[in-house]
Amino acid sequence: MEFLSEIGGGQDQYRPSFFELAAQDQLRDLLAPVARYVLAVFAQRNPRYLLRIVNSHDEFFSIAMFFVEKHYLNTWGASFAENFYGLKRRKRSPNSSNTIQSEKGKVAAELTGKSDKLGKREIRLSLVGLILIPYLRSKAADLYDRLGGGIDIDGEGGVFHDAGATAAAERERERLRTAPLRARLVHIFHTYFKLLYPYVNTSWELYLLAYNVLYLFDKTPFWRPWFRWFGVEVRRMSAEDYRAAQSTQTSLLLSPLRRHRSTGLPPSFLTVVRRTVSLLPQLSFEALKFALPTAIFFFRFLEWWYSPEGGSLRLRGRRRGAGADGKDGNVALRAPPRPPSASLESGGFQNDEEGGKGKAVRDEGDRPEPPKPGECPIHHGPLVNPTALPTGWVACYKCVHQWVSEKGCCPVERGVKVSVGELRKVMG
């Protein structure tokens, strides 16, 4: 592991390795799902106050992280995730070399009176890279998913290219001909966005990958391309940085008890309370470096606990005692019964109360047979990108999105109305 940690480090001991930068990048990517999960849990108990925040999670999270990142950039010269891993940012000329920066930086700073610490310009540009760019990428991905993820809902070349699909497409074109100019412009934008987004996103990811490879082999000192544009690089914190950080934290905690400068008298109780209240925002930001990683660990623990291979199912099995064979504490789980028909107009699959088994019931609607496990009920093949419907059935995302867009119902329980917004992708 010592060898792996030095990959990309070269002769400069303060140059972060590839794995350190990748770890802090992953930590930052985990903050948004954790915040969303915590808000969703509290919103279930107080929907009146928190539901709007959950629905506008991206905006709320970006605003909150703006203040957090601004505090850490001003105080520590690093983002929240970088500070957690003992990294910092500093100003750097795009044409300067590592040797000059690492060995002669302090001497040059003393002679010229300039420092390599982040200035206001570098902090503002760093906030653009930390807040604005991830926000725009998140909104673009959400818009692409809402538009169907590249699926052709007009029925041309799709699974349901029939007379009904062609008629629906023609009705949509006729509606657009008579629609206002703004609606037509929005439709054109959405059409070209769906067409170009996959190529633009792939090109951007390849561009970042190329920069990662160059950094890994010590061909560039910049971890991300915008660091070169901003004139900023990421470095490891030195022993002097840690001593300065410890001194800053100590002075911050003892500042409410600081004596009066002119008289030397201890502060009054009201002065201590006032100073403590004024320090609460800074202390809260500093506490995040311990609270957020703990929340991420707890979030991952809950994912494992409630997973099929997690501890929740095993614990319930032990509490129930021996199984049907009486050999161990594992309980043989039964397959859930077939869902009853939700429609009286079309055929359904109803439960037999006497035998406990399902039986097919057909009527005028000629409802299709329920699919086999792991089979798509639309194209009757293996599930690809499984997506759940409100009725409980699972189908391929492409198939069910096109089906619901055209027919507006469940492909199995056809009497149940379903909209595209009710589809939920099955992760994992």
Describe the structure.
Strand 5 and strand 6 form a beta hairpin. Helix 2 (18-45) packs antiparallel against helix 3 (47-55), helix 2 packs across helix 13 and helix 4 (57-76) runs antiparallel to helix 8 (120-146). The protein has a three-stranded antiparallel sheet with strand order 6-5-7. A two-stranded antiparallel ribbon has the order 1-2. It has 428 residues and is mainly alpha-helical. The model is unreliable at 1-9, 98-103, 107-113, 153-160, 322-335 and 341-365 (pLDDT under 50). It has helices spanning 2-5, 18-45, 47-55, 57-76, 80-84, 98-103, 105-112, 120-146, 163-178, 181-216, 225-230, 239-254, 269-305, 311-320, 397-407; strands at residues 87-91, 232-236, 348-351, 358-361, 386-388, 394-396, 424-425.
* Order of adjacent strands in the largest pleated sheet: 6-5-7
| Sheet/helix structural class | mainly alpha
Helix and strand succession? HHHHHEHHHHHHEHHHEEEEHE
Mean pLDDT, nearest integer?
75
Give the count of helical stretches. Answer: 15
Beta-strand portion reads: 5-15%
**Largest sheet features:** 3 strands, antiparallel
Radius of gyration: 29 Å
E-strand count: 7
- The poorly predicted ranges are 1-9, 98-103, 107-113, 153-160, 322-335, 341-365
Helical proportion?
A: 55-70%
How far apart, in Å, are the first and last alpha carbons? Answer: 30 Å
What is the molecular shape?
elongated
